[in-house]
UniProtKB/TrEMBL annotation:
Protein name: TRAP transporter substrate-binding protein
Gene Ontology CC entries for this record: periplasmic space
Matching InterPro entries: DctP_fam, TRAP_DctP_sf
CDD domains with a match to the protein in the record: PBP2_TRAP_Dctp3_4
One BP term from GO: transmembrane transport
Organism per entry: Roseicyclus persicicus
Subcellular location: Periplasm
Gene3D superfamilies xrefs: Bacterial extracellular solute-binding protein, family 7 (3.40.190.170)
Keyword Signal: yes
Keywords: Periplasm, Signal
Pfam families: DctP (PF03480)
Signal peptide: 1-24
């Protein structure tokens, strides 16, 4: 009797251990910024630590030492399960993510936390059911607080200053902006900006203020034109493979849900809200010229914005967005309300 009880107890303990082991999940994350980048040190590493903390170690995240593909491949890496978690820029696949173009237009804002929360709420309220988002669990959406115009030798204050100048840019929205302002857009990743400036291939480049510093472009870009509500923006995602998400125990899913979504999106924005002013101050201290865009230049950009919105409404409807006007109005109103708080 005692031997039977001991055997039964031992079997039960073994089964419980096996169940615990089966429930443990180690998630792989592919990231394409170096481990010294602030997004790695101040955003992704703390996120991984939080996941382990809230699940009491049952779910962990391992950030891989090297990316599993190019930045533009990271949505697909998560959707197909090559990596469990990835992050990236919706701009890298513009034809796929037409629904989100509005977030990258001029005047999207310069408060990155408010922008990111507004984008998350807009996604949840109006876009989450679109087929383009199938296959992933959206963990966060974010913006970077307004991209600005930077030049290597002269101040770009009026449309006349910009005409004929060659600027590096990263996507179709930026390309249209530059073209309609009379500039010459040159497509290239931000990582190539320095060599292109040094070789004279470009005269200037589009960046956030922080990326001028974080990409070490201070010596090559010395004149900065600031648009109060941003010249353009970039929309980002943090996503997880849907099947991998479904494999996590419901209690751990609930624990993770409490730290992602709007919470993680707000944390994304706070990183850029800390970085952009610090970079601006550092550039000013180094003797750089930082000037606000002239009313004439802002008016020219506003005219381009109006045309962009009109064209996007048609394209978004074709991409399955039932009421694009409402989507844009929701984002604008939400951002305004958040910045007014």
């Amino acid at each position: 009797m005692t031997r039977t009880l001991l055997k039964t107890t031992a079997l039960g303990t073994a089964l419980l251990f096996a169940a615990g082991a089966a429930g443990a999940q180690n998630l792989t994350m592919s990231s394409w910024v170096p481990p010294t980048h602030f997004l790695h040190t101040d955003f992704f590493v703390p996120f991984a630590e939080q996941v382990a903390e809230v699940t009491e170690g049952r779910v962990t995240v391992t950030i891989l030492p090297a990316p599993l593909g190019s930045p533009a491949q990271h949505w697909e890496l998560a959707r197909t399960g090559v990596a469990d978690i990835t992050w990236g820029n919706f701009t890298y696949e513009p034809e796929r993510f037409v629904a989100l173009w509005f977030a990258e237009f001029p005047n999207a804002g310069t408060d990155a936390e408010a922008q990111s929360v507004a984008l998350w709420r807009t996604y949840e309220a109006h876009l989450a059911d679109l087929e383009v988002f199938d296959g992933v669990e959206m963990l966060a959406a974010g913006l970077f607080g307004g991209g600005q115009l930077h030049h290597g030798s002269a101040q770009m204050v009026t449309p006349g200053d910009i005409a004929g100048q060659k600027f590096r840019m990263g996507g179709p929205i930026q390309e249209r902006l530059l073209t309609e302002l009379g500039a010459v857009p040159v497509a290239a990743p931000a990582t190539r900006a320095y060599e292109m400036l040094e070789s004279g291939v470009i005269d200037g480049s589009l960046h956030t203020m922080e990326s001028v510093v974080n990409f070490r472009l201070e010596e090559a870009l010395t004149h900065h034109t600031v648009f109060p509500e941003g010249l353009y923006d970039a929309a980002f995602f943090v996503v997880m493979n849907s099947a991998r998400w479904d494999s996590i125990a419901p209690a751990d899913q609930a624990a993770i849900e409490a730290i992602v979504g709007e919470t993680l999106s707000a944390a994304w924005g706070r990183q850029f809200d800390a970085q952009n002013p610090a970079a601006t101050a550092a550039l000013a201290a180094a003797g750089h010229t930082i000037t606000e865009a002239s009313p004439e230049l802002i008016a020219a950009v506003d005219t381009i914005y109006d045309a962009m919105v009109a064209d996007w409404i048609v394209a978004a409807r074709e991409a399955g967005v039932a009421d694009p006007e409402t989507v844009l109005a929701f984002y604008v109103e939400t951002y305004g309300a958040l910045t007014a708080e």
